[in-house]
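Q: What structure does this chain adopt?
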Amino acid sequence: MLARSPHYPEWRSAAERVFSQIDAAVEKQSTAQRPRSVTICVLPSGLPVKSQDLWPELAKNGRWVRLDVPFAQIVGPVASKFARRQLAAGVEPVESTWILECETELKKLIRDTFATAISWTELEPVRREFLSHLNRIGRDLKSVDQTNADLKRMNIEKLLPDTLGRNVRLRDFVRTLLLSGNGSLVFNNSFVQWGSAEALRRVQPQALIAAFGIRQKLKPFSSAVLFEDQKRSNPTGDAPDPDGSLVDALLLAEYVHLAAQRVRPAAGSATIMAAADLDRILVLGDTLRLPETIDSAKLQSALLSWLG
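A:
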């Protein structure tokens, strides 16, 4: 109906003028006035990465930095320091540090801080509740619309960890994240990627850590049904899939970097791509200067200094 309206071209032109004015005003702001930002993407331990050429296309515009220990020993202290740092002027607590992870290792390290941590594992109760409703959808559009409306109105506070359930903005962020598709309801690494992209788009946190995991092998037949609860529909036991997880995580981590590039000024942002088991990181961004070799303590200090 909107597209057929005779006023549609006029409406589109007016909307474009408004957004052109907004874009022009944003471009006039000096990048020095905007807080610097960093995105860290971490592949999990247990992947067959040592013989792999990681992110070859991204590496053409970045540089590898050698560490004194595997990154698995660094990411926890980095997350903890990010969560407890003094915030730059103009940065609200909810905009400071976000962590999207498959497990709960990093969340345990930032309790009682202003950081926001969302874990795929901790969201299992609400994920199963949503899947249960979606599996009962009838074969008609009315049933789909009604189920979608019911899930948007459902009170999920008691299904969420306290830190998420009590905060109405975070609660609605999780609901939208799980219901907006992109596999975030059924695949852990898709959840981390899509959650990171949405956080970058809607919150633009100064520091974001996307910690990927090892997914389970897809089961015959039930895995072909997008919203099917595989544990309920298929008695086959779960088995980890390191090879498939590596393929997924490499690409999804790159998507997170691209999402960060879209919403952040290039001069004030940096991305670190890492694998937990490796003692090297790929640094993307010309203004974060790191030596070719750096120890863990100096890397942590450099990142905190970079954020300001």
